[in-house]
């Protein structure tokens, strides 16, 4: 999947925004100021880091060893909650599912009140 398509998909999420808090890369996608995806769009290092639950993170690392790894940039305590996916030849449907999971994981990290505020003007 091309970087442009990933960027468009992340931005299609309700109230998602694109930010550059660390410079040109990674390109970050946030919901209510919390990152759910970090895209590294350069061909020589084409990858995305996505938020996940510890259980799903482990599941994907087992399903795609050496392609899906713990969030490489995170301190060890946070690594179970982030997966880095090397995107060359990665299945598109699976990537879209993982982006959906990242978005939902961040959404559900907020209180019910904040979730309702985010979802209220769908």
Quick structural overview:
This protein is α+β, with helices and mostly antiparallel strands and 122 residues long.
Question: Can you describe this structure?
Answer:
The protein has 122 residues and is α+β, with helices and mostly antiparallel strands. The protein has four helices and six strands, in the order H-E-E-E-E-H-E-E-H-H. Strands 1-2-3-4-6-5 form a six-stranded antiparallel sheet. The chain is globular.
How is the secondary structure organized here?
Layout: H1 3-11, E1 16-19, E2 27-31, E3 34-40, E4 47-51, H2 54-63, E5 68-70, E6 82-86, H3 92-107, H4 112-120
Antiparallel strand pairs: 1-2, 2-3, 3-4, 4-6, 5-6
Q: Regarding CATH, which class?
A: Alpha Beta
As a percent range, the share of helical residues equals 25-40%
The residue ranges in which pLDDT falls below 50 over 5 or more consecutive positions are none
Shape: globular
Number of structural units classed as domains? 1
State mean pLDDT (0 to 100 scale). 93
Question: How is the main sheet built?
Answer: 6 strands, antiparallel
Q: What structural class results from the helix and strand content?
A: alpha+beta
Order of helices and strands: HEEEEHEEHH
CATH topology heading: Aspartate Aminotransferase, domain 1
Task: Supply Rg.
Answer: 14 Å
Number of helices: 4
Level-2 CATH architecture: Alpha-Beta Complex
Strand order of the largest sheet: 1-2-3-4-6-5
Compute the separation of the termini in Å. 27 Å
């Amino acid at each position: 999947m091309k970087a442009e398509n990933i960027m468009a998909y992340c931005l299609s999420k309700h109230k998602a925004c694109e930010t550059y808090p660390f410079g040109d890369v990674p390109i970050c996608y946030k919901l209510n100021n919390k990152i759910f995806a970090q895209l590294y769009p350069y061909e020589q290092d084409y990858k995305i880091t996505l938020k996940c639950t510890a259980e799903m993170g482990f599941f994907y690392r087992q399903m795609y060893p050496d392609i899906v790894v713990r969030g490489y940039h995170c301190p060890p305590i946070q690594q179970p909650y982030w997966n880095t996916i090397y995107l060359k030849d990665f299945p598109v449907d699976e990537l879209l599912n993982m982006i959906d999971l990242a978005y939902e994981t961040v959404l559900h990290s907020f209180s019910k009140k904040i979730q309702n505020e985010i979802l209220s003007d769908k």
